[in-house]
Amino acid sequence: MNLLNGIAASSGIAMAKAFRLVEPDLSFEKKSVEDVQAEVERFQAALIKSKVELEAIREKARVDLGADKAAIFEAHLLVLSDPELVNPIEDKVKLENVNAEIALKETADMFITMFESMDNEYMKERAADIRDVTKRVLSHLLGVQVANPSMIAEETIIVAEDLTPSDTAQLNRQFVKGFTTDIGGRTSHSAIMARSMEIPAVVGTKSSTKDIQNGDFVIVDGLKGEVHINPSSEIIKQYEEEHAAFEAQKAEWAKLVNEKSYTADNHHVELAANIGTPKDLEGVKNNGGEGVGLYRTEFLYMGREQLPTEEEQFEAYKAVLEGMEGKSVVVRTLDIGGDKELPYLNLPKEMNPFLGFRAIRLCLEEQGMFRTQLRALLRASTYGNLKIMFPMIATLDEFREAKATLEEEKQKLMNEGVVVAEKIEVGIMVEIPSTAVIADQFAKEVDFFSIGTNDLIQYTMAADRMNERVSYLYQPYHPAILRLVKMVIDAAHKEGKWAGMCGEMAGDEVAIPILIGLGLDEFSMSATSILKARSLIRSLNKADMEKLANEVLQMSTTSEVMTAVHAAANLER
């Protein structure tokens, strides 16, 4: 099949050779060997290859990602040089006349089991090191290549079953031109990161990894949700023209980079950006962001082997606050869980992780981790316009407990003589339907709301947003969703508070006219969506959009809403 259809996850067109980022087949059988010395030498050769590979990865990580990320590979090199691990493997080959693969696995499994049973966190982390390192050595024994995205050095389209947030965060933007995955939806974190990185992506194709081989020439159409495999010269020419047209449109939008976001009848809204790391600020500024509406702090915790220190977090928050030069920065406290895992926390597997022990629920129980983050945020607060937001709030008691913890840490710091900003707005993400329903009660106590529509939609529609088979139920314009959004905005305004939105719906061209009509104050989206949204907003009349909003709230289906919006806002179909 030369054409795959999926979900358009990040706009743009990319053309390059495929790089398959898939788990290799490392299966093998136990064998008896006669020449044990030759087998030991084969194992030693695999060790040397692994060391050379890790040294190159370590150096690249140090240059591209910093010393803390490079330390992970330093630890792996130490494991490879540890005689406590290496000698028993060689002894097993010599004494039991078995192949190096089984000797490696049985020895490694023994150490992994031993370390994982210990109470000491440091020793538990060593189990993860051994697992990663032995997988690399095993791949060399079997002659199987383990894909490493950080070592990509030519223009590439990544092909994967899925990409974890840490995988995506380590992709080299210089060479990775786009990606396509078997699974996922528009709101999966790989898709969100693709938009943040400004690279085209198509997800949920079901068969990219089956149909695309390393080196195939691939076109990723992030506008229509298509993936072309080894296309004809005619199709390539057509896409070269479409790519040029898209770039020309982006150049037109770029003329609005220094403009404010006003409707045609002079109503101002704030267009802010969602970011994951301080490095994303360049994109915010280049795209005319008026603030940061969501700083996803979990990326500070990912792709490493232990929790970030208070000092590491302080420096990251300070960099963002200073970089935004007094503009609003809404920082979300740690939102781990669902599809975002931290292996070093050793949390139990859950049947329904999106509905489980995550976000504020985890932080209120893991007080040490939570308080460290709050202290870092409070210390950084004097360097800019900080607002703090708690995720996944379901009850007023949760918000009160979280805010009380924040106030305790603030008082401790002040007692220590640390200067903290006098006024820091504290709000919540509204992503649980029950919270939206009693938003009028929350509005009496919070300073602001930010509506997290990615989860609000999946919880309201009872449809896992990571499951492409029910992706049709990701319906941001469904009247049920719109009514919940209206309840939140109205509740905020009644108490003199502001309401924003940081879910992907905020940058959706069909949703924007409705949200203008509902009175949303702040729209926070992927930085690459800001200029297109600003262009659209400048064409809208708020009074007309208020009339539209009132009409669609009374409709029954998403399709009815879409038809009404396209007509009222003159959107292209």
Keywords:
573 residues; alpha/beta; Glucose Oxidase, domain 1; Enzyme I, Chain A, domain 2; TIM Barrel; 3 domains; eight-stranded mixed sheet; eight-stranded parallel barrel; 22 helices
Briefly, what is this?
The strands form two sheets. The protein has an eight-stranded mixed sheet. An eight-stranded parallel β-barrel has the order 9-10-11-12-13-14-15-16, surrounded by five helices. The chain has helices spanning 36-65, 67-80, 83-96, 100-116, 121-142, 165-169, 189-197, 208-211, 233-254, 281-286, 310-323, 359-365, 367-380, 396-415, 433-437, 439-442, 453-461, 479-494, 511-518, 530-538, 542-552, 558-569; strands at 3-5, 7-10, 13-20, 156-160, 176-181, 201-203, 217-221, 226-229, 270-275, 292-296, 328-332, 385-390, 425-430, 448-451, 498-501, 522-526.
